[in-house]
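Support request, priority: normal
Reporter: lab tech (M.K.)
Component: structure prediction queue

Hi team, I submitted a job for Rhomboid-like protein from Mycolicibacterium septicum yesterday, and the status page still shows it as pending. I've pasted the exact input below so you can check whether something in the sequence is tripping the parser. The sequence length should be 212 residues. Please let me know if I need to resubmit or if it's stuck on your end.
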Amino acid sequence: MRSWPAAVWRYVRSAPLTYAWLAVLLVTTIVQRQTHGRQLHDLLVESSTNIHHLGTDPLYVLVTSLFWIDGRYWTPYLVLFSLILAPAERWLGQIRWLTVGLIAHVLATYISEGLLYLAIHDHLAPERLVHVRDVGVSYFLVGVGGVLAYRIVRPWRWVYLGAAFVYFGAALVSNINFTAIGHMSALLIGLCCYPLTRRRPERVEASARSSR
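Reply from support: The job had stalled in the queue. We restarted it manually and it finished. Here are the results:
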């Protein structure tokens, strides 16, 4: 019988991108916890996908915002990455996993910030939100969580999706803001990525031939 450290290491090796990313987040979280006040604010705003940065240097902030967490605690991300991102990476493979996550991250960012821009333009939100702090991995995580629903057998799939829609829907209804809009958008975008979960016919045939 193998020891539990060996089983944990085998699990980590099965999802290298997930845990490499998590390791980077651990480093940046340590940096974040050792930085305070205005210096921390400026550090995070520099990598924020806010309206100003999306208009001036979108590629830079869309990438760098993924390497900071929105908060000071890394442990919850260890749990969420292990329960959502790691199984999805093993199932989809690294390329499709990355594709789904980045699609959700980019589109949900532009949807949420685009609606915020319209709200500011119509004087429904303060202009200072053009430079709002907006970093984190949540849109990527929620998008991949959405597509992971197709891996869950029915009827548990509907329970999983029902819980997700209740959670993000309640957040949206109770406090309509760009983050809540982004999370709901990411969930729907992930569900729209269903075609990426399907194996190509030639790969299915090749797999069938190899099993004969």
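The chain has eleven helices and no strands. The first helix runs from residue 4 to 13. Let us know if anything else looks off. Ticket resolved.
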